[in-house]
Amino acid sequence: MAGKTTGIAAGRRRVGVLALQGDVREHAQVLTSLGAEVSLVRRPEELAAVDGLVIPGGESSVIDKLARAFGMQEPLRDAIAGGLPVYGTCAGLILLADRITDAISGQQSFGGLDVTVRRNAFGSQVDSFETDLEVPVLGAPPVHAVFIRAPVVETVGAAVEPLAALPDGRVVAVRQGNLLGTSFHPEVTGEYRFHRLFLESVRG
Ligand code: GLN
User: How many angstroms separate the CA atoms of 187 and 180, rounded?
Assistant: First the structure.
């Protein structure tokens, strides 16, 4: 058959990492180790060429502003609404949330996840910490989770599946259809299981 060899024909899918700001490289490394073909996404045509997208941690208000400046907000909203598998960590989770508490003035999100997320939920005293989390969907062992000025999920809509919570009950990982979000950063601890779950929905 003539034509280009697609990721599907090669048995692999192309996944993107939104590369406007944040810990892009760490995600690209995890995805590459898991066998994905990875590209960095900054423009609408680069977004159109991927079968899934990771939105990294960083600063959600900066990623929001850059996305609008680069003409990426609308293409991202359309892609998410169209079912593109997306995994957001930390700032990425905030950008996937339909509602943000403690956003900076004028801050917007791409939305898609029917959740309310509170930015910087742990305040300045304890703005970073690590803990082990049970994540039933991933099985054993627990996830060693690193929280860096992290958000929490305060409310979840009916279609949202909480995947993990802190001992006090606050939700820190969710899934809704093809969308996955974590308050913490698996990409910095050698924890590959969330990325694998994301790649399953890309291949599915
Ligand atoms: N506090 C950051 C924000 O509001 C998120 C921090 C992170 O991604 N590690 O976007």
Answer: 14
